[in-house]
Amino acid sequence: MYTLYDGHATGGVTVRAALAEIGAPHKIVNVDLGAGEQRSEDFSRINPCQQVPVLVLPDGTILSENIAILMYLADAHTESELAPRCGTVERAQVNRWLSFFAMNIYGPEYLRMRPAFYTTDPTGADGIAAAAAAYLKRHYGIFEAALGGGPYLLNARFSIVDIYIWMLVQWWDDRDQMYRDWPKTTRLVDTVMRRPKIALVHEAHFGKVISGETGHAH
Ligand SMILES: N[C@@H](CCC(=O)N[C@@H](CS)C(=O)NCC(=O)O)C(=O)O
After folding, report:
1. pLDDT score recorded for residue 122
2. CATH of domain 89-195
3. What's the CA-to-centroid distance between 173 and ligand 1, angstroms?
């Protein structure tokens, strides 16, 4: 039995989605980020970074870091086919884009959404948010140009990187610009969120799934 420490609508939705796809028995311990529970002594012992998600494996091993958890789940449950076999070119591409999104989208989204946290100069926050937004747009554009026929990164083959991208795109607030400028990326995300098991996670955390290629998530 896995134990997932997570809050509401956090990056941990990726782990919820992967566990749902696998059908792995698990329990969820809610960490109320709004109430600061991530900074409690008990949770800090589990993850000194005071962040969710954290997955505790059946043997008691504590795994933090979103993409490490996703890779573990895919490799421990190969029958669910959530990632190509290690050592293949397809797997290298999955790892490459997981890494790309973790570095170039996940981190910079925090700069865009919470700029004041990243400066000691209160007058500098708006500039940080604007620079982060420009950086994010550039990198979403790079991904859009790299996507092939879709709908997923590996075309017909769904994998953990698609789950990760689905989660991150929920943080981007200009839906109209996204559908206009990144049609292949939004098609990928629409396809992920309509997978029956992921649709349930999506609705619980982000709102109603709307059918149709151009349906907006919000
Ligand atoms: N590098 C970590 C980052 C995790 C992270 O940023 N988690 C956020 C929720 S999405 C969090 O727990 N924040 C706690 C806080 O804001 O105090 C990962 O990839 O899992």
Report:
1. 85
2. 1.20.1050.10
3. 19
Coil, strand or helix at 88 = coil
pLDDT of res. 208: 85
pTM for this one?
A: 0.95
Domain 2-80: CATH class, spelled out: alpha beta
- CA 156 / ligand 1 centre spacing (Å): 30
pLDDT mean over 110-125: 95
| β partners of residue 62 | 56
The answer to whether 189 and 206 have CB atoms below 8 angstroms apart is no
pLDDT > 90: what percent of the chain?
Answer: 94
Checking if the pLDDT of 192 tops 90, the result is: yes
Q: How far is the CA of 40 from the centre of ligand 1 (A)?
A: 15
Instruction: Give the burial string for 70-98 (b: 16+ CB within 10 Å, else e).
Output: bbbbbeebeeeebbbeeeeeebebbbebb
Domain boundaries, the chain: 2-80, 89-195
Q: How confident is the model at residue 209 (pLDDT cuts 50, 70, 90)?
A: confident
Residues having CB closer than 6 A to ligand 1 are 10-11, 33, 38, 50-52, 65-66
Which of 8, 40, 51 has most ligand 1 atoms within 8 Å of CB, for mutation?
A: 51
